[in-house]
């Protein structure tokens, strides 16, 4: 290997290390962010199966069956209270769990 080839190889390795360090720094201290109000998950047929959304101060993750019928919701209300909703169907029992904080002085 000639001295020029050695220098070129050293420069290539140096550039690779520098780019790797810079990309690592950017990802670690400034991670890429996706901002949206809703994310819809669909199955292979394009039917909605899950929905993550934030609207009017509420944030919820909702799950649907293959027929598009609501099966469960996990959410947080505007006041920060969590809730789990299991509506059930015509042949299933449904229910809702809300957790409230009672402030005492």
Characterization of this structure:
By secondary structure, the protein is an alpha+beta fold. It folds into 2 domains: 1-33; 38-98. The chain has one helix at 3-29; strands at 38-42, 48-55, 58-64, 70-76, 82-86, 95-98. It has a 6-stranded antiparallel β-sheet with strand order 1-2-3-4-5-6, with no helix packed on it. Strand 4 and strand 5 (82-86) form a beta hairpin. The radius of gyration is 26 Å and the shape is elongated. The mean pLDDT is 82.
Radius of gyration: 26 Å
The best one-word shape is elongated
Count up the domains.
2
- Secondary structural class: alpha+beta
Share of residues in helices: 25-40%
Largest sheet descriptor: 6 strands, antiparallel
Strand order of the main beta sheet, please? 1-2-3-4-5-6
Output mean pLDDT. Answer: 82
Q: Give the termini distance in whole angstroms.
A: 80 Å
Total helical segments:
1
How many E strands? 6
- Unreliable segments of 5+ consecutive residues: none
- Helix/strand order, N-terminal first: HEEEEEE
| Strand percentage | 25-35%
